[in-house]
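Progress note, project year one: complex with iron/sulfur cluster.
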Amino acid sequence: MSDAETPPETEFDPVAPNTGEEFEPVDVFPDSDDFDLRPGADSCYKCSTCDTNCPVAEVDDDFPGPKFQGPEQWRLKQSDDDYTVDDSVMDCSNCMRCDNACPSGVPLSQMHNTARGEYVSEQMDKLSVEYIRNRILANYRTSAFFASKVPRLANFAMNFGPARWVMEKTLGVTSERDFPEFARQTFREWWADRGGQAASRENAREARERRGLPEDADKKVAYFHGCYSNYNTPEVGKAMVRVYEEFGYEVVAPEQKCSGTPMFANGMLDDARRHAETNVSSMSELVDEGYHAIASCTSCSMALRQEYPELFDIDGIDKVAENTFEAVEYLRIHEDLKGEVQAADVDGELAEEFAYHAPCHSRNQGLDRQAVELFRDLDGAEVEDVGDSCSGISGTYGWKEEKYEKSMEIGEEMFEHMEHAEGDTGMTECPTCAMQMEHGSGYEIRHPLELLEAALVE
Amino acid sequence: MAIESEVLVIGGGLGGLTSALAAAREGADVRLVSYKQSTLRQASGLVDVLGYTPDGDGPLTNPYEAIPSLPESHPYRKVGVQTVRDALSLFDDAVPTYEGEHTETNALLPTHGGSIKPTARYPAGASAGLASDTRDTLLVGIEEMVDFDAPHVAAHLDATGVPFDVRGETIRFPGDLRADAKVTRYAKLLDTNSEVAVRGRMVPAREALAQRVNPLLEDEDRVGFPAILGDDNPGAIRDALGDRLGVDVFEVPMGPPSLPGLRLEDALFAALDEAGASIETGNPVVDFEGEDRIEKVFIEKNGAKIPNSADQYVLATGGFVGKGVESDREGVYEPIFDCHVPHAEDRYDWFEGQLFGDHEFARYGVATDDDLRPLDASEHSEFENLRAAGSVLGGYDFAAEKSGSGVSIATGYAAGQRAAQEAR
Ligand SMILES: Cc1cc2nc3c(=O)[nH]c(=O)nc-3n(C[C@H](O)[C@H](O)[C@H](O)COP(=O)(O)OP(=O)(O)OC[C@H]3O[C@@H](n4cnc5c(N)ncnc54)[C@H](O)[C@@H]3O)c2cc1C
Ligand code: SF4
Ligand code: SF4
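Model obtained:
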């Protein structure tokens, strides 16, 4: 090891979470009957803009809509001691569209998340099939972890007809859908085989030299790959690494758990908090060291940026939120990405016309137009927006037997637009939207990072 | 690095969208950033230019004729009559589903409250409902939608002396939707023409709705529904209902949440996309850098401040409702650039004792020079590369004058066009 490569004196290990002495997570909900739906409730002036954005209210007669779930329910709780959270809150898909809509800044999704947490912890029968099913769906990471050990067997078993029939009948998991395939090699396995952080540092150094950047340029990011690009689509994670290295960034892949998104949506806040603690501790020390947290899944970046600080009080949480970015967004801010894309072209497998769908959680971060605008001037590929409807799957929502039909009804508009679009390949940042797009159209779905890799990386 | 463009428009309401569109059509590289959804979703979707004078005279027949006698501080006076006309031409071109461009005269449209409103442009869906049309009219209300009580609206219209007979009937919407179903629920059902249960039988929604209305029809030639007839395909739905009923079908614009407003917003965003502009919504502009010139502004995303820089800026953040102008116990202010907002020192002078009195606060907003540059307290322009458009402007009371959309479109057009010319 040369001097330049000697790690700093500290015990700092960018890959392990910092579960040191000082780390003490604080619980916002000291005891579970203390949920507070209040923040911002009084700002609601009942304009119903949120209701016009809710994809569930559009197709589901029984769903009273975001205005009721949030501010109105809160008022009911205040005026009536016996009022318990309405069970319709379980029908909210946590798409967070209402959040983005409210002209008055009422934090609707936070209210729904806390209401759902209260409903599940106080009103839901923990032995019920629904609870067990939701818990399994929410803890996708656990199933994926085991499945990835035996990917071939898992791929077969998970989509084995009779088994799926049993799952639907006993657990309420729809048999209409195909389970996503597990990769033969996870992203982390690939990352380790490739030489981990040391290899990335070397690649970044070479790229900086090529680009005439200073040797010691402070370019380093911590990749939050999430479960899906680890277990199911490692090609997305690889594209992220290669693109960043190409711009001279050193990448680390710290230890991480599920972002918690499926848990928020199912009211499993305790599960979500456990995972969040690991993720925040992992990322916060890196942030202190000058790293930014980068996610390629828009629900993961949404969770780290917005839902964590809204729901939990964990040391370092705000710092992590402020320093988390979506992968393409970060490059747009820090590099002349537009210029490089304009000067590039693609051929081969990704020289395609793509039908692009912006995930709701990217919309909420203001990223819904990013892919379309970025690739406007790219030679060899075309990206066409298929409209602003919700895809309808919303993570675990569309996997529930009783929600399947509604999920497809919400997605109908997107399927139609995909069919009318020029291309026969889909594109989106969200793994579950990708599942829905594939399910409804039969198209293969790619991630913008893959196209970026094809355009910019040798 | 910062995200760069030639013209940066802040605010995605009618004012901001028109600015961005005008600038993009001038050939500038435009970026529009907006925090939340605009007040269009709450507005009727009608485009009023000027219905009444500030003194309350009206309804005006020709809004353009009245503009030169408006007070000098009025935004229309800053941009001039010709610009108002040009701006509306841009609008007509961008939103071909609107009507009214064939005349300079205000059209008279029935509202969901049963009054008659003078307006300059209206959605095609409302056109069979014009109050100047003498055909007899049936209004159909939906039992669950308390905002539109058809018999009551009909009685009100009748009392205004409309030149036709008008009747109101109330039906249950087929399919027994929940009592407070969202307007988008009705729209989606009709858009997709999904089947609904009618007395145990499944019938496509459009068919079922026509079946409910048919027996109620006497010898009217047109039927008006509250504005719930579809989001994506309103024209096809009106045609389908009209065919089955053998009459012309129209929508009466509704209060918030408003489908016509939502459709208008969609149409403008689509036009802007077509014109090649960049668009980002969901995060607020919170701060800026620069002295006499604005160098960059910062968009806040969950604590991170993302720099955006441009040569020219347009401030179109709306009025009190859109959060472009705010007030506290100390005073009234414009929150991003802290532009001066002229207002009475004493809070008790901001409003009148009566609810519908002549409140001063209704006219609060930034004051500008003739180039729409905001002025500071000593009447110098605040920044050389900032213009303001839409309801962030002061000097007019859109609710009283019925001029909201017109002012936003006219000033948006002027600000966007001039910003683009300067950026070249
Ligand atoms: C209930 C109601 C009914 C109306 N009915 C009619 C009618 O029938 N006819 C008519 O002609 N007019 C009507 N109007 C008026 C008309 O709709 C408005 O005058 C016009 O739409 C205002 O447009 P705007 O672009 O100036 O502002 P707004 O529509 O308020 O848009 C402002 C935009 O700026 C954004 N913004 C605010 N702060 C920031 C920030 N810091 N950073 C980034 N973005 C920001 C907001 O999120 C919003 O999207 C009505 C208005 C209301 C409220
Ligand atoms: S999060 Fe989505 S589904 Fe839930 S209430 Fe809001 S808009 Fe509706
Ligand atoms: S959009 Fe906001 S203010 Fe309007 S009803 Fe919903 S929560 Fe209330």
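Residues B 10-16, 33-40, 42-44, 46-48, 256, 284-285, 316-318, 321-324, 336, 390-391, 398, 404-405, 408 surround flavin-adenine dinucleotide (ligand 1) (CB under 6 Å).
Chain A touches chain B through 48 residues (CB under 8 Å).
No further modelling is planned for this target in the current period.
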